[in-house]
Amino acid sequence: MSQKLESPSLDVLISESAIQQRVRELGRQVSADYHNRELHLVGVLTGAFLFMADLSRALEISPVVHFIQASSYGDSTSSSGNVHLSHALKLAGKHVLVVEDILDTGLTLAKILQDFRSYNPASLEICTLLNKNRSRTVSIMPKYNGFMIEDEFVVGYGLDLAGRYRTLPHIAVIQP
Ligand code: IMP
């Protein structure tokens, strides 16, 4: 279903059909890799809520689904680097796949990995929808990634600007 662009300054970067096709591919890949293991998907709220919903339903295996809350952005478009996590997950001995909307500075995923490793999961991997082509002070290597994009601010398909645009079915760039 299409949704009207809410502002003339939004340009479509990745179409709804391209996202859905890529999510199906990722679903097949993850299903093959975890076919003989119980998979715990951990979605990072709020940005990953749509990706998580679609990816989890694209799997040919039945995962256990969790969400955690991570906050690092206020109303601005740059990371504060101050990442707060909120969850009560028990991950010891579990096969964990963190599902994230976008890898930008990497500070959020670095914090999540550090936190999760302390629970001694059996395995711990990352699936990001988007990976920004930029330099980082932390090294994060997602095992699964939907799309590489340039270092620009994007919205839609879960990603917001000050709470807006999350429900767009595509990824868009905000023109200055
Ligand atoms: P980090 O900078 O990799 O820690 O990313 C932290 C969070 O900032 C991501 O999970 C997103 O929710 C948000 N974020 C980073 N880049 C963008 C963007 O281009 N648009 C919208 N949100 C973003």
Our Rg estimate from Cα atoms comes to: 16 Å
What is the 3D shape?
Answer: globular
Return the average pLDDT rounded to an integer: 91
Q: Mind summarizing the main beta sheet? A: 6 strands, mixed
Which blocks of ≥5 consecutive residues have pLDDT under 50?
none
| Total beta strand runs | 9
Spatial arrangement of strands, main beta sheet:
4-3-2-5-6-7
Can you describe this structure?
The relative contact order is 0.21. Helix content is 22%, strand content 31%. The radius of gyration is 16 Å and the shape is globular. The strands form 2 sheets. The protein has a 6-stranded mixed beta sheet with strand order 4-3-2-5-6-7, sandwiched between helices. α1 (16-33) packs across α2 (49-58). The protein has helices spanning 16-33, 49-58, 107-117, and strands at residues 10-14, 39-45, 64-71, 84-86, 95-103, 123-132, 144-149, 154-155, 171-174. With 176 residues, it is of the alpha/beta class. The structure holds inosinic acid. Inosinic acid binds next to β5, α3 and β8. Inosinic acid is lined by residues 47, 72-73, 79, 100-108, 153-155, 159.
Which key terms come to mind for this protein?
globular; six-stranded mixed beta sheet; 22% helix; three-stranded antiparallel beta sheet; 176 residues; 9 strands; alpha/beta; binds inosinic acid; single chain
